Amino acid sequence: MLIMDDVKATVLSILQDLTGEDVSSNMDANLFDEGILDSMGSVQLLLELQNQLGIEVPVSEFERSEWETPAKIVAKVASLQ
């Protein structure tokens, strides 16, 4: 099991790779409302989480409100490990 800092670093790295944005300074930014992440980005995010962390989240179970901020993504990933 990864420790929380590793999960956070990996999630932030994936988000930066996918969006070109460094969101580490605002972990509560709503990625969808701010136009940083869209539905295609969400799918790419889930695929990268699966590839890098072994987290499986079926798109059918993806609840946008649970994944809308970097902090929520980190918490969700940690809960799935």
Automatic annotation (TrEMBL):
Principal location: cytoplasm
A Gene Ontology BP annotation from the UniProt entry: lipoteichoic acid biosynthetic process
Gene3D superfamilies (UniProt xref): ACP-like
Family: Belongs to the DltC family.
Subcellular location: Cytoplasm
Stored InterPro entries: ACP-like_sf, DltC, PP-bd_ACP
Keywords per UniProt: Cell wall biogenesis/degradation, Cytoplasm, Ligase, Phosphopantetheine, Phosphoprotein
Post-translational modification: 4'-phosphopantetheine is transferred from CoA to a specific serine of apo-DCP.
Top-rank taxon, per record: Bacteria
Residue intervals passing through the bilayer: none
Matches recorded under PROSITE patterns: CARRIER
Domain Carrier: 2-81
The name this protein goes by in its record: D-alanyl carrier protein
SUPFAM superfamilies assigned to the protein according to its UniProt record, in alphabetical order: ACP-like
Cited function: Carrier protein involved in the D-alanylation of lipoteichoic acid (LTA). The loading of thioester-linked D-alanine onto DltC is catalyzed by D-alanine--D-alanyl carrier protein ligase DltA. The DltC-carried D-alanyl group is further transferred to cell membrane phosphatidylglycerol (PG) by forming an ester bond, probably catalyzed by DltD. D-alanylation of LTA plays an important role in modulating the properties of the cell wall in Gram-positive bacteria, influencing the net charge of the cell wall.
Record GO terms (molecular function): D-alanyl carrier activity; ligase activity
Residues recorded as bearing O-(pantetheine 4'-phosphoryl)serine in the entry: 39
Pathway involvement of the protein, from the record: Cell wall biogenesis; lipoteichoic acid biosynthesis
GO cellular component, one term: cytoplasm
